[in-house]
Fold these 2 entries.
Entry 1:
Amino acid sequence: MSEVVTLGHGSGGKLAHELIDRVFVSNFGMTGPLTDSAILEYSGVTLAFTTDSYVIDPLFFPGGDIGKLAVCGTVNDLAVSGADVKYMATSFIIEEGFPLSDLRRIAASMTEEAKKAGIRIVTGDTKVVEKGKCDKLFINTSGTGFLRPDLRHISTGSKIRPGDKLIINGPLGNHSAAILAARNIFNFSIPVESDCASLNHLINSVLKKSSEVHFMRDLTRGGLSSVLNELSDMISYDIIVNEASVPVEEPVKGLCEILGFDPLSLANEGKVLFVVGENDHEMIMDVLRSDPLGRNSAVIGGIINSEIKRVILNTSVGGRRILDMPSGIQLPRIC
Amino acid sequence: MCLSFPARIVAIDGSMAEVSAGGTVFKAGLQMVENARVGDYILLHAGFAIQIISEKEALETLELLREMDDSLEI
Amino acid sequence: MIPWKYDLIMKYIDEYRDKALIMKLAELIKKSATGDYTFMEVCGGHTASIHRFGIPSLLPGNIRLVSGPGCPVCVTGEEFIDYAIECSAMERVIIATFGDLMRVPGAFSSLDREKAAGADIRVVLSGLEALEIARSNPERTVIFLGIGFETTAPGTAVTVMLAAKEGIKNFFLLSAHKVMPPAIEAIIKDGTRLNGFICPGHVAVITGASAFKFIPEKYNLGCVITGFEPTDILYAILMLVNQANRNTPCVEIQYSRAVNADGNKIAQKYLSEIFEFSDTLWRGFGVIPASGLKLGKKYESFDAEKRFPVNVVFHEGSEACICGEILRGLKTPADCTLFGSTCLPETPAGACMVSDEGACNTYYKYKINE
C-alpha cells in the first residue's frame, strides 16, 4: 500500500477497500462482511445504522446539490438493507467566508428531500474552520431505521442462489457525467442531470409485494462493477452480466467513448441493484416500472452455478470476458 | 493508442468547432481538416478533428460485410 | 431526463457492433483459418478493443494475437516521468498532462503521488486546454507533457504553432512523441515469429497507408490497416488470414472510412514544420534511431528540456520486470514473476501495467488465462 492517501483511495474501487480494511476495519475490530449499513440488535429491536460524508465539488449541480445528496445517500444506504428509514443526524464543516445564502439553499434542499423520503432530521452539529482548511462545505449524515428481522439476509446475500436475476432501476453513469461537466475543468457539456434521488419508497414498494428480494446495494462510487465484485466475494456462484441489457443513455455512452471511461464503473446516486428470485422477477419489474424512479428498469443478468467464482460479462457483440473491480478513479485518456 | 471516436460537427467558430457524440458536446480544433461543415462527422482525438469520416465508405463497408456469405472469399 | 437531439454517431457505432455481423465474421474466420497464425497488433487501442469486446473468445485456437509496443505510455522511459516530477517541484510551474501519464511509475514516485503531495499537476483533454491554462495564468509556467504517436503529435504541433503565433511566453512542451514504423521494423528485425500485423488505424489516418509499405515489401509480412470497432478487427483478421493463406502479403486498408494511401497532408505539414526526428529511447527496446519527435530549431524556445535543464539520473528498472520483452511480443504477462502478485494496476512495477492499453493491464483487467 502506498504511504500517502491519494484520490484513488476515495473512489470506491480496490484502493478504497484496501484503505478501509487495513486502516479502519482491523483497528476497530469490525467483523463480518462490510455492508452499506450496520445491522444492530438490542432488546428485541433490530436497527440499521449508517453514516456517510459528502465532499462533492461543485456544491450545486444539475439534478441537485450537496444537501440533497447528503440526505439521499444515507437514506439509500439504509433502504438497501431493507430498513424502514426513520431518523437522520447531520453535521456541517463550513469554511470561513461561505455565503449564508448558499447555506440556506442547501438546508432547504435537505428539508425538501427529507420530506420526500418521509424521514426526520433530528439532530446536528456545525463547525466553522478557517479559510483554506476545508473546501467550502463538507456534510456528514448518519441515519437509522427499523429492520424487520426477516429481511436481515438482504445485506449479506445469504439467500442468493443460482437462477436469481439481477435488476437495476435505470441507466448508469448520469451522476458522474453531470458532475464532471459541472466541474468545468474539461471543455465539454452534456445534456444529462445527476440521478440523485431517495430510493426508499421504490424499494419498499418492491419489498411489500415480494419476499424474494435476496440482495440489494446502491451503485455509488465504483459503480456497478464495484458492487458486483463485492458481491462476488460474498457468494460462491458466478455472476453473469449481459452488456447489451445494461441501460446507458446515449450522451453518457458518447462521453465514455471519447474519454475512455467504462460506464459500468461510473458512480450513480439514484440507482440500486436488486438480486431477486427467478419466480418473482417479472412481477418486481412491473412494480419498478410503474414508479418514476424505476421507469427504465432492466434485467441485466443473473446468478449461475460456480465455475470460476467471478463476475463475467457477456459483451454486446457475443464475446465473453471478466468484469474486474475498478482500481482508483477513471482518468480521461488519449491512448 | 489513439483513442479516437467519431463526433458530429454541430457548430463552427473560426478554427474551432463544437462536436457531438451521442449528445455530449466537445470542442475540437479544425486546423487539420479542410472544408469541414456543420453536419460532417469527424474523428475526434485529443481535442482535434484528425479526419472527416467518409459516410459513403462507412456505409459501403457495412454493406460489404452484410453481403459476405459463407462461400465468398475476399 | 433532458431530451437531446438524436445522433447518428451512435447508430453507426451500433451497426459496427452488430452481434449478428460479428458472429458471421467469426464463423468465416474459423472456416478460413486452415493453418496456424500469429498476428501482432501494434496499437494499444487495438489491444484495449480486442479485450473489451472479448474478441479472443470468438477466435479459433489456431489464431494467436500478440501485443506490440503500441502503447505510448508503456514505451515512455521512466526518465520522462522523473523529469516531469522535477519540473513540478519548481516554483510557479503547472504540469499539464493527459490522464494516461498520471499513474505511470517513475524511479521513486508518480505524477499522481506528487499531485497528492501538493504539486500543481492538471489533467487536460488536449494541448489546446494546456495552452488555455498558460493564457489564463501569465505569471505561471505551464509545461505540457506531449505523448502519443503520429495520431497525437500533429495536435501538439498545432498547439505550439498557436503559442508562437500569439507570442505566449509561458508555455513549454516536454515531448515524448514517437513514430511507429521504426518500432515495427525493430520488432520484425528482432525475429519474433509473425504472419502479419494489425496496423494502427488512427496513426494511418495521419501517415497514410503507404507508411506501412515496408512491412510486406521488405519483410514479406501481411499488413492490414484496421479500425477499432469489433467488426473492423474481425474483418482485418479475416483479411490477414487470407493474405497468409495465399502468401500475398500486402498493405490492405480495412479502415477505409478514415484511412487512405496518402494520409492527412495538412497534419503531416504541421509535423514537419514543428518537429524533427530524434534518436529516442523506447522502454524495452533501447534507443531506436529517428523514432522520436523533438521540437525543431525554429520552435526551440518552447522546448522545456532546453529551458529547464534538469539532471535526471537514468535508473535501471526492476530486474524482474519484463515489460521490454512483452512490448516486443517475445513474452506474455503470464511469463512475468511480478504479474498479478506485486505488480498490479494499483501498484504497477512497469508501464505495461499502468496504461489501460498496456498488455499487462489488459491481461489483468480481463483476467485472460483464467
Entry 2:
Amino acid sequence: MRWKSLPTDARKAVNDVMTEFGSGPDGARKLLEQARSGARPRPSTISDDTLRVYRDFVQEKFDELSKLRPDKNIDVMRDRLEIYRLWLGE
Amino acid sequence: MLSDYLADRIRDAAVWYNESAGAPLTAGFRSSALKPKYSFFEVFRMCKSVESVAKYQATLVGDVCLARNVLIRDRHGSNLPIVETIGRLLILDTFSCTYDGLTADSTSGFFDESDCPPWDLWIDYEIRVDSSPRHVRGLLSAWIPQEYFAIVEEAIVVSGGEALSWGSSEHVGLDAVSISAFVEELGRSVFAA
C-alpha cells in the first residue's frame, strides 16, 4: 500500500506524531533525540502496518533523492528513518 | 462546465501576480494584505480531526481569495486590467504532505513547510469525501505563472510525487476559452488523482 492510499485518519495520526516537535529537520531531530532516550516510545495507537507504509514511503523518497539530488541535504529523512528503525525494531 | 468563480479567481491571481512582479521571492506572492490567520501547518496541528483540518483550511483559502478580489476591485473598479500571463494550475493534496520541509528548502521558500504554494496564487480548496476506504481529501489549487514552472517541477520531484501535482497538462493563456479548458482539465485531474 502507498502512503497516499492510507485512510486520511491514519496519515494524520502519523503526521501528528512526526511533527510533535515541529516540522522539517528541526522537528525530526528533536523527535529522534526523544526516541533514542526512550522519552518518546513507539506510538501505541498506530498499527505496525501503517508505520511501515510511512517508513517505506520515506525510504523510497530517500533513495530517489539520493540518486536524483545527491548534493541535497536530506538529513530530515535519515532522522525519520532512524526513528522508525527504533520504533519498529527493524 | 466552467465554474465562474474559478475563472474569476484565476484572473484575480494573474492580476495580483502582475502587480507584484519584481518583488523579492521571499516577500512576493505572500502579501501581508492577504496573509491568512494561520498557516496550513498550524491548522493541521490545532485541529484534532481531519474534517476540521479540511474545513478550516478551506475557510482560509476562501478568505484569501475574497480579500484579493476586494482589493483588486478597490484598485481598479470594474475596469480590471487585461493580463496575458501564461500559467498552470497546481494541486496540493494536503493530507499527503509529510511536513519534512524539503520543498521549502529546495525552492527558497516558494513552498512552505506544508508544501503549500504562496497564498497570493491560491485559487480554491475542495473537500472530497470517499467512503471506502475512508478518505477525506483537501485539495488546494493554485495558479502558477510560467516563470515558476521550473521551481514547481523541482518541488514535485522533491515531494516524492504524492502531495503535489500539476492540475492541467497544457500551458494556456487566460482568455475566456482557455480558462474553460483549464478548469475542465483541473476537474479531470482531481477526479483521477
